[in-house]
Each structure stands twice: as structure tokens, then as C-alpha cells.
Design goal:
Elements (H helix, E strand, L loop, with lengths): L43 E5 L3 E6 L9 E6 L3 E9 L5 E10 L3
Antiparallel strand pairs: 1-2, 2-3, 3-4, 4-5
The chain binds calcium ion (2 copies).
One calcium ion binds next to loops.
Length: 102
Amino acid sequence: MVTSGEFPGLDLPGVDASSSLEGLGPVELHDPTQDIDGDGTLDTVTTSGPEAMQVWSDYDHDGVADQVTVVEKDGDYAAWEFHHNPDGTSGWVRTDQGKIGQ
Ligand SMILES: [Ca+2]
Ligand SMILES: [Ca+2]
């Protein structure tokens, strides 16, 4: 049996630059393998599929992803942040979208 601990990122949803993450709930991020912000604590998992690479980051280390950036092979990209709203709801909000090199 394969567990996500042996293969980080395997249980993360596959998304591409045109995917909407609205309606997607919190994404648990176990066993991050990279330290993107350089504070000495691992915070990020990078996964790649046939069409796109996804970079999931958990900056406050609560085990739930706070940000994801998706970069497709053809340069299309999108960035999303997981927001906790004052009214108690939460959800993904797109913060950037475009094409690399334009
Ligand atoms: Ca870090
Ligand atoms: Ca987090």
C-alpha cells in the first residue's frame, strides 16, 4: 500500500491554470519537502503531472496549504490563496493568472 508520506504530494488535487479552486475546501499538506521562504522550516510541496506543475505552500505550518501556484507546460499560470473570511467561511481566492513571458 502506498501512503502519501512515502510520496509527498500524491494526495493533492491535480489542477491546471484554468481550473477553478472555488468550492475546493482546505487542502492538507503533509510532509513538505522544500523551504521556499527560507525560514528553516519546510513549507512547500511541488507536484508535477503531464500538463502542469503545482507548488503548494503552507507558510504558517498548520498542515493546511495557504497558497498554490500552477504552471502549465505552455506557460499559462495561476496562483491561488486560501482565505479565512471574517464570517467564518473559507475558500480559495485566485490572486494571479497569466502567461509566463507576456
Ligand atoms: Ca519555510
Ligand atoms: Ca497553512
